[in-house]
Amino acid sequence: MPGPWAAGPAGRELFWRLIDLCERTEIDSLWFSERLSSPLPVLEPMIAMAAVAARTRRLKFGPSVLVAPFRSPVLAARELAMLDYLSGGRALPAVGIGVEQEREFRAAGVPFKERGRRTDEAITIMRRCWAEDEVTHDGEFWKLERVTVLPKPVQQPMPLWIGGNSDAAMRRAGRLGDGWIPSFIAPAEFRVGVEKTCAYAALARREVPGDHFGVLVNFWLDDDPARAHATAAPFVPRGRVDEGTLAACTAFGPPALLTERLEEYVAGGASKFVVRPMGPSERMLEQLERLAAEVIPPFHRR
Hints:
The chain is an alpha/beta fold. The chain has 12 helices and 11 strands.
């Protein structure tokens, strides 16, 4: 996942260089976060993923994560299906309820208190649109009559991962999703979350595949840990977690530290990682080059 983004024309050129770097290196997928409103530049994920699909032949891509309540589920299902179709099955959709910013939901015309229920209903509708020829649905928020989404995704069934750290997100992943991908979560809590998600799936007479648990990890590579922390500090979101959790779920230091952190998550059940460089945008590509050369290969050889 790209780190803090550059504003103006520099960001546009950086975008294409980022895609090309990921396509030619050991990096296997590119992920984009979503914010409806942000004081800093944030790439719109649907358009960014379409650009990745057109520019590449190998690289997979996904949102980390789409805020499901912001969109009509039929429109979201159609857009994601088209991305998967045009890319030959390289889309990795993931959804969540969004951050605790009520003003973004007001801007989207969505009551903040409805975001969880809307997400659950949207997931059901999207999955049906990808799998069924016609969808008729009479729900709390959406009424559909013989709706058809074509072309269908190449991937059948189309996977849908669920983001979020809360117990509600784990329950949602177990009942409705194909995977769970939280962020800002310590390895010990991640292990508990995997166990809870599997338990919720069992209660729903479902199973989340064992290799469908992932996590987002923020990093900055520097052989001097103090310098890595100093570089990353201005870019780390404040107020998301306490300092102890932040230290346990990030890796600011040499490549060996990031490898060690990822191994801690592997021990807790993770097999997929979205890693994000936390530092100035003008150094993002050098960080990803080093990530691809010094951290990723041993994991891909397993």
